[in-house]
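Cross-check.
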Amino acid sequence: METVEETETYIARPSSPHPSVAILIIPDVIGHRFENAQLIADQFAANGYLTYMPDVFFGDPISLNRPADFDFPSWIKNHGVDRTEPLIKKFVKHLRETVGAKRIGAVGYCFGGKYVVRELAAKGVDVGYTAHPSFIDAEELKGIKGPLSIAAAETDQIFPADKRHETEAILKEVGQPYQINLYSGVEHGFAVRGDMQKKEVKFGKEQAFYQAVQWFDTYLKE
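Predicted model, tokenized:
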């Protein structure tokens, strides 16, 4: 862990980095300290991408095995756009101006997907990828100005079939390169928290990661 912009940050550095390129991971609600998320960052680095994953929850992530009576509505209210987005923009600026990244890819899992889309709309990042995204508004999606790849779960109450179909229609109209892969036998969260003992989940988790790498190899590298 390192401190970047006064924020605890997990940084995965590649041994043979792609020049002038970086990835910013915006994690799911379990946060940047979750080992599975750190392993994903390590794998992006193993594929040549300098990867930053900051604590976007200001020391207040949700525990992996949260109690049944956990008050999620109150928690999410404390982690809205007004609080989260300035931090993400600060990191995008850091990657461009301090690290020297000419092109930035954003990765968002669940909670993070919304901010991938918002940064694509704001031209903060150049290319986006999200798995089982949460709480993306149609108007936010209509504003993207760069390529976007989505890994979707067959069973997902937050990104269900009707929302997925709406997303497809919007992306077609927007005209940016896009990809939506649907994985059977998996649920919301599979790309980070999937049970690797289950064949379908193991396949989906691994393929969702390869999907991201191929997307960045195609659209992010110069």
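The beta strands are 2-4, 7-12, 21-26, 50-54, 103-109, 127-131, 148-155, 178-187. The longest helix spans residues 199-219. Passed to J.P. for a second look.
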